[in-house]
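Weekly structure sync, notes
Attendees: PL (lead), two postdocs, one rotation student
Agenda item 3: pending single-chain targets
PL asked that the sequence for the first pending target be pasted directly into the notes so everyone works from the same version. It is reproduced below exactly as submitted, 193 residues in total.
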Amino acid sequence: LRQLGFPITKIKKLKDFLNEIIDDDCLLEVKRKEAWIFLNNSSLNRLILLLAEIMQRNKNIPAAHALLRDAVTLYPKDLKIVRGLSWLELIRGNMAASIAVLEDGLKAVPDGFDLMVPLADLLVHQGDTARTTELLRRLEARKSPATQVKYLKVRLAMRDQQWAHAAQTIESLRTDPEVMRLPGLVIQLNLLL
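Predicted structure, written out during the meeting:
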């Protein structure tokens, strides 16, 4: 932060804020506003993600949540921030909020491939095959990576209990060189077997 030109007093204040566990709702609101002012003045959306990760690591989930919620209003088109908030909602056990965050993100960035795939995955999990199918159509129309589209089709096939088709597609994906460069997808595929 010092190299980015932040004054040492702001850095110290931010460090103290990140390391503090806040149990009091009133104090959390004050800290949230302080973070909002800091972030609004800095315009460094990458820093927001880093701060949220540090807060999560320090088990300060309410502060990370407030920070990402505010960050999404500042940077509604930043797909990483939107995904970060969505993921945090999942960690908190709120799938409906996670879906809503991704849907709001798609309103800001209608062709946001990085939001469509996790949204479709969550919708399959909830059994909403109609909306998942619509997202698949959008992904295919925008020439999204075939591996991601196939993965979502596997999830739909499994939902429809088409086990043989799903297993065959999983095996073909697991040997695809493009998939080998995507460790998160490899893990997901292994979990589906």
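Discussion points:
- The mean pLDDT is 83.
- The first helix runs from residue 8 to 19.
Action: rotation student to compare against the earlier draft before next sync.
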